[in-house]
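hey so i finally got around to running both of the ones u sent me last week. sorry it took forever, my laptop kept dying halfway thru and i had to restart like 3 times lol. anyway pasting them below in the order u listed, first the sequence line then the C-alpha cell line for each. didnt double check formatting much so if smth looks off just lmk and ill redo it

first one:
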Amino acid sequence: MAIKPVLIIGAALLLGACARVGQEYTTRLNARQQAYAAAAGAPVQSFHYFSLWSWEPLSDEQLAVYTRSNEAWLLDLDGKCRNLQFTNHIGLTSSVSEVSARFDRVITGAADAPCFIKQIRPVDIAKLNEPQQGKPREVEEMQRPEK
C-alpha cells in the first residue's frame, strides 16, 4: 500500500519536469521566430533552388530553409503543415530550379495535403546572427562544496 503514494508523487514530479521542458522549448521557439521575423526582408516572388543545405521549422505554418550556408529564406505556409517540427526530412517543389510563392510547396512525406508556400522572404543571415555576436555567454556560478 505504501507504493501507491510513492508512484503518485513520482508521477507528479515527472509531469512537472515535462511541463518545464515544454515551456523552455516554447520560449526558445518564440525567440527563434522573432529573430527570423526581424531578419527577414520584403516578400519576393521566388528564389533559385539547387539543393537544400539545411532547414529549421519555426511552427506548423512557417519554416526557414537554407539553400547555402549564407543564404536563407523564410517560408510562410498556407494553412498548417501538420507536425512540421517533428518530421525528419522535407523537400521543396520547384520549376526550372526556382521555388515560387503561391505555386510551389513543402513536401514532408506525410499523407496530409501538401503545404503550399504562401510567402517567401529573404533572411539577412548577418542580422539573424547579430544578437549572438558580442553577447557574453550565460554562466551559472555555483559555490564549491566545503570539504
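and the second one:
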Amino acid sequence: MGVWLTIGDFKTSMTILSNTAYSAVNDYTFAVIPLFVLMGVFTTMSGTSTEIYNAFHALLRKIRGGLAMATVGASAVFATITGVSVASASVFSKVAIDPMTRLHYDKKMALGSVAGSSVLGMLIPPSLMFIVYGMIAQESVGKLFIAGMIPGIVLAVTYCVGIYVMATLKPELVGGKKATEGQQGWSKENIKIFLKPLGAGVLVVVMLGGLYGGWFTPTEAGAVGAFGAFLLVLSKRKLTIKKLKEILIETGYTSASVLLLLITAMMYSRMLGVTGVLAELNTFIEKLSVSPVILIIIFLLIIILLGTILDSVSILLITMPMMLPFVHSIGFDPILFGVLVVIAAEIGLLTPPFGLVVYSMKSALGDKASIEEIFIGAFPFILMMIFVIGLILLFPQIATWLPSFMEV
C-alpha cells in the first residue's frame, strides 16, 4: 500500500511485492530456521530440559537460592538447544516452579527466576532473534551466534549473583532455613543425575564448537543439531510415527510464520526507501547533534518502549530497517549493536502490558499464578538486564572479542 500510494502504479507495486516475496527467502541460509526449530522440538520431546534442571540442582543444592540458580543454569544450557524464549518459559514453568514451591520459595521469586532466565534463549546461540537480525542487517549469522555467547554467560552469572544477594538480604525469599534442610553430600544417585544430560552436552559442544572452529556454516550446524536431537529422542525411546508427524507439522508452522515475517520486513524496507522516510530520518538525526553512544542509547530506549506493546521479532522487523543505516553511518559495530538490540527487545518480553514470556508462563501454569505476580517477580531481572546492557556499552569486547577470531 505504501509503495502503491508513493509511485501511483498498482501493477508495479505488486511486481515489487512478488519479487520481494521470492528473493527474501530464496536463500540457502534460510534453511537454518527450520533446522534449529526442529532441533528445539526434538530436544523438548526427549525430556532433556528436566534432566538439565536436575543436574544443576544437584550441583548447586548447597548454595542459598541454589534452586533458583539451577533454573538459570538449566535455562542457559537449554537455550543452546531451543533458541526460543517463549518455549523455555513454558517448559521451565512446568519443571521448576513446583520444586521451588516445595522448598517454600517466595512465589514471586520462583516465577521471576523462570521468567528472567527464559530470555537467555534469545541471546545464547542458536537464537531465532540473531537469525532474523542477521538477515535484515546482512551480517554473518555465525558471527552473531558467537557474539551472543559471552554476553549470555555474563547475563546468566549476573542473574545468579542477583539471586544470591536477594537470598542473603531476605532469606525468606528462598525458604529461609527450610531451603537447606535435608541436603546431603554427593551420592552415587547425585552423580547419575549430574551425568544424565551428557548427550545434550555433547550435542551442544559439537554444534557450537564446529561453528566457532569454522567446520560448519550456521545452516550445517543446524542440520547437525537437528540430527543429534533426533538421535537423543530415539535413544530415550520416545519417538513414534504419530509424534514425528506432529513434530514436523509444528516445525513447519513455526518456520512458515518466521519466513513470512522476513518477507514483510524486506517489503517494509523497500517501502521506507521508496517513500523517502529514511532520508527524512537522516536529516532529523543529524540535527540532533548527539554523540554516537547517545544515539545508540536512544535507539535502545525506543526498542525497550516498543517491547511493552509488541513481540521482539516484530520490533526488529519494524525498527532495524530504519536504525541500521545510521548505525553504519556513525561507524558503530553492527554485530555489537545486534547483541544490544536483542537484550533490549528481550526486556519487552517481561514488561507489561504485552510481556509474551509472562503470558506463556501463565498459559503453562494456569491458576497456579496470576499475571500480576509474574510481572512483579520478573522486575528485578529486568533491572539486571539493563545493568548488562550498560556493561556491554562500557566494555564492548564482551560481545566483539570472540567474533574477531572468526572468518565466517
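quick thing i noticed on the 2nd:
Residues 179-183 have pLDDT under 50 and may be disordered.
anyway thats it, ttyl
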